[in-house]
Design goal:
Layout lengths: L4 E13 L7 H9 L8 E13 L3 E5 L6 H8 L7 E6 L3 E4 L12 H11 L4 H15 L14 H14 L4 E5 L7 H16 L3 E5 L3 H7 L2 E6 L2 E7 H11 L15 E10 L8 E2 L4 E9 L4 E11 L4 E6 L7 E3 L3 E8 L7 E11 L2 E15 L26
Parallel strand pairs: 3-7, 3-8, 5-6, 6-7, 11-18
Antiparallel strand pairs: 1-2, 1-4, 8-9, 10-12, 12-16, 13-14, 13-15, 13-17, 17-18
Helix pairs in contact: 3-4, 4-5, 5-6
Bound molecules: adenosine-5'-triphosphate and magnesium ion.
Length: 399
Amino acid sequence: MSSNSVIEVQNLSKVYDIEGKSKDLRYAISKFFSSKNKETEKLLALNNISFNVNEGEVFGIIGPNGSGKSTLLKILSKITFPTSGKAILNGRVSSLLEVGTGFHHELSGRENIFLNGSILGMSKKEIKKKFDEIVDFSGIEKFIDTPVKHYSSGMYVRLAFSVAAHLEPEILLVDEVLSVGDMNFRRKSMGKMNEVANSGRTVILVSHNLGIIKNLCQNGIYLDRGEIQSSGIIQKVVEDYQNSYKPYQNKTLPNISKHIDVSKIDILSITNNGSKILSTGDEIMIKIKFKSLVKLRNLLVKIIVRDNNKQVLFSCNNKFYDAIFESVPDEGIITCQIPKLALNTGEYSIDLFLEQDRIEIFKVFEIMRFEVFAGGFYETAIMPYHDRIFLVDHVWKIE
Ligand SMILES: Nc1ncnc2c1ncn2[C@@H]1O[C@H](COP(=O)(O)OP(=O)(O)OP(=O)(O)O)[C@@H](O)[C@H]1O
Ligand SMILES: [Mg+2]
């Protein structure tokens, strides 16, 4: 291991068998009676990955869905094992992978704190010293003696993060939890991770949120289909990811209108600091750059969003808000802001229609395609199956 590297990953590969995915009874029975052995499909989730992480570094792992980020963290935290290659970790590891990994459902918050501490090799006395700080940070003191199975997912994540970050691990592995919880808690958590790193301990952080990654990390890797595409200084790695990744395409915009020239359409994630990578739950903005070819007034703008099968899903229209643009500059940008993108992962397209005084002056079907990635629509960041196109906020109760 080189002088100050705490984590050394050497030629790591992971192959998943995906035959076992379907576990229903019918499948099991038909498999039992089938004379032929079903071919097992192999999925190469990680392909010959090597990198080092130095002590006290916050190291970022980015890449599209399914690129192998979580698999890598699971190997580092020994939840799963590599097919070949190895990962050497020099220090006590605490990980926050899925909501509440490492928590025992029947035990209370208090008991789980002590359990986690002792797994990390801390004495009772050491844990006691940290206890108040953990509870205070998590903000759930009222429920500390309630079994964690009764916690809301938000409470769960708060406590889990607080435990993982405060129990003095030498290496902290965090998968995507910062997309969870309210803004205040996220900010607090980012501060805490910085503090952990500044005290000489090492953090590996996986996130789709490139703003957070750039803020917190010094170095990192960009994975795609299980391979490292770029590694090193984080600014460069994020740039490489953004440049190589084409989240959507613009049609060559046809010059079809005598009234208006639309030169560019962009869809950006405000949540993700203006990135073109859109995730479910993000605040997004559609930007339409135009030039008026004649003096325009009373401009109606209609956007229709369709799925891959061209089925219309919804429309946005400034008429809905009684906000038809009475006056229109010679050139400018029309923006449409959607506070919480409620589409599941998948590919979609946009049609754009413009009307002046109820007369159509511009109409292009599928003027742009875009892709939506998994994100934090729900606090848990859990995603429904992708055939459920819309996500809606809802509230559960039993009385
Ligand atoms: N237990 C498993 N069995 C079979 N295949 C798996 C298993 N876990 C992950 N995979 C597959 O391995 C690949 C990498 O998955 P992984 O979860 O590591 O990606 P990720 O980069 O974390 O994605 P995301 O950004 O969506 O969280 C994917 O194709 C996934 O379907
Ligand atoms: Mg993942």
